[in-house]
Amino acid sequence: MRSINIGLLGFGTVGAGMVKILIENGPLIESRLGALLILKKIADLDITTDRGVAIQPDILTTDASEVLNDPEIDIVVELIGGYEPARSFVLQAIANGKHIVTANKALLAKHGNEIFAAAGKQGVEVAFEASVGGGIPLIHSIKEGLVANRVKMLFGILNGTANYILSKMTDEGTSFETALKRAQEKGYAEADPTFDVEGIDTAHKLAILMMLSFGIPINLDAVYTEGISKITPLDIEFIQQFGYRIKLLAIAKDTGDAVEARVHPTMIPAGSMLANVNGSFNALSITGDMAGDILLFGRGAGMMPTGSAVVSDLVDIGRNILYGAVGRVPAIGCQAGAVRDRRIKKIDDLETKYYFRFTAVDSPGVLSKIGGVLGAHRISIESVQQKGRVTSGSVPIVMITHKAREVDVQNALKEIDSLPVVQGETILIRIEGD
Question: If you count Cβ atoms within 10 Å of the first and of the last residue's Cβ in the chain, which end, N or C, has fewer?
Fold first, then answer.
């Protein structure tokens, strides 16, 4: 039986998960692939820490070149993370004629166009199922399962850390800071959680999915990105009273003339399926013009789910190697010549409904002043709640609007926040799903 040799760069949590799967499910994988996947070399700066998997010590090295330059290695798995040296290692492996498997969404979101072009020129595969959604087969579903569809919309929860925090805040009434601390204690959040809570990790993933769905180059800079750190228990209480739940959503829409691309906290109807994806789980709703709406759900991170996605990529590439079919499924979801730049809408062009929470002086006429400014900017109010909870002489006034343009909303809020009767910055949350 033929062997396919693998070199691993990065022996952290996901790397250990991949190795564990290859060991424990080796016979199953062999029966499905028709070949042996042989882990020939592992490179990591730390080769002394016990990862809980039994491997031969002689396959460990601190020198990445032993993986990159070994002519017997067919596939290089990059699980280092970050931009460098991951980018340089991947490009060197491609130049050496090796296929690539990576879970590195940040790398692909920033340097994916360069990497895919290099791989196409060299005639090697780049597989990245583990980069988005952990163990959920999102990439395969879009590239192959929905190949007959024009994808019209992506709508999803793509960061388990943020989803865990918002779930705790909603279900237990905890503050953002308390929920974040719990997420860190459980290992869901890093010591520096910025990428997760400020939406950056989600934007990386959305940029990759947009390439596959819409046939456009990766353009991370065009994805409007906003995090969850300003969300308070008070806002969540009001949101529930209006019949919504709040999620950090990745949203991309093909509007015909352009593409919407945004990541931000979003209110969605409490009875919707996506609103009830809680804890550290991920979910992505995909709307195809032929298939309609599809919802994919599961664990979006973790040693074994992400390791499972890495191994699925190894098997895919292994099959292509065995049958001389490298390039059978384009890495970018379409033929290179079909990729087209498209206009990505600015956030100012967005039209949606909004939630506002004003902190106003407790005095007569305040509501009419705020309503007057909104009306002057063509923003109509659907519903209002004004609670009598006075804090330092101020009360919260909460409004839901009808659909409005973002540019009008921002101009109105700038004017309202400068009113003497309004204290502090107005909280804005966008609404989808009605």
Answer: N
Q: Which residues pair with 76 in a beta bridge?
A: 7, 100
Sequence-separated (6 or more) residues with CB below 8 Å from residue 317: 75, 99, 101, 125, 127, 326
205 is catalytic: yes
pLDDT, tens only, 176-234: 999 999 999 888 888 899 999 999 999 999 999 999 999 999 999 999 999 999 999 99
Residue 276: DSSP 8-state: G
With 0-12 CB in 10 A as exposed, 13-18 as middle and 19+ as buried, what is 347? middle
Closest by CA to 253, choosing from 244, 262, 245, is 262
Given 98, 205, 253, 345, the catalytic residue = 205
Check if the beta carbon of residue 130 is closer than 8 Å to that of residue 306: yes
pTM: 0.94
Task: Write the DSSP string, 215-230.
Answer: -----GGGSEE--STT
Dump pLDDT digits (tens) for 334-349.
999 999 999 999 999 9
**C-alpha span between 219 and 2 (Å, rounded):** 40
- The amino acid present at 230, given as its one-letter code, is K
Q: Supply angle C-alpha 104, 106, 107, rounded to 5.
A: 70
Q: CB of 351 within 8 A of CB of 404?
A: yes
Using DSSP bridges, classify how beta strands 281-288 and 292-299 pair: parallel, antiparallel or unpaired: antiparallel
Q: List CB contacts of 248: < 8 A, sequence separation 6 or more.
A: 157, 159, 162, 163, 166, 199, 202, 227, 228, 263, 264, 265, 266
Assign 332 to helix, strand or coil: coil
Q: Map out the domains of the chain with their CATH numbers.
A: 3-135+303-338 (3.40.50.720), 143-299 (3.30.360.10), 349-431 (3.30.70.260)
257: β partners: none
From residue 16, give the alpha-carbon distance in Å to each of 90, 114, 122, 272, 318: 20, 28, 29, 36, 20
